[in-house]
Design the sequence.
């Protein structure tokens, strides 16, 4: 129950955020500290992970990206949202569970690399949020994914 509550709170944190900028004694706003990870790197770290048909396992090609993601989360104080998805082949409930397993597998890998569990939220979507057509194999491939989003924690 405690883990579920933390997940809900962290999920809310992703949607409701206020970034405070300290004010100096002169009345001027302080410049925020520069981020250690630049925007191009963040874009690469948050690329969707695509999956083989009916497989929840992370593809070997993505481990380098996930290693870099784990380092950024730890070093630069981020929280991670992992949204699991499936294509429309198969039963609704089965795809929901499969999409959940995909997100959880990514979460477990990040935890194995030192990311704290309470910094990661997983959300399954099954086949409910396609980003491409499910009528072609190319479209279905794009729909079998885990989306990664980062939120800076101040």
Sequence:
């Amino acid at each position: 129950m405690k883990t579920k509550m933390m997940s809900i709170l962290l999920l809310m944190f992703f949607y409701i955020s206020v970034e405070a900028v300290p004010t100096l004694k002169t009345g001027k706003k302080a410049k925020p500290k520069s981020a250690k990870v630049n925007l191009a790197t963040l874009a690469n770290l948050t690329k969707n992970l695509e999956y083989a048909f009916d497989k929840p396992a992370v593809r070997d090609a993505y481990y380098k990206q996930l290693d870099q993601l784990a380092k950024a989360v730890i070093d630069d104080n981020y929280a991670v949202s992992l949204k699991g998805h499936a294509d429309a082949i198969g039963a609704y409930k089965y795809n929901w569970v499969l999409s959940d397993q995909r997100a959880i597998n990514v979460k477990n890998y990040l935890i194995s690399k030192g990311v704290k569990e309470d910094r990661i939220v997983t959300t399954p979507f099954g086949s409910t949020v396609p980003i491409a057509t499910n009528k072609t194999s190319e479209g279905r491939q794009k729909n079998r994914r885990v989306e990664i989003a980062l939120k800076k924690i101040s």
User: Anything to note?
Assistant: The chain has five helices and four strands. Strands lie at 49-50, 78-84, 120-124, 145-152. The longest helix spans residues 92-112.
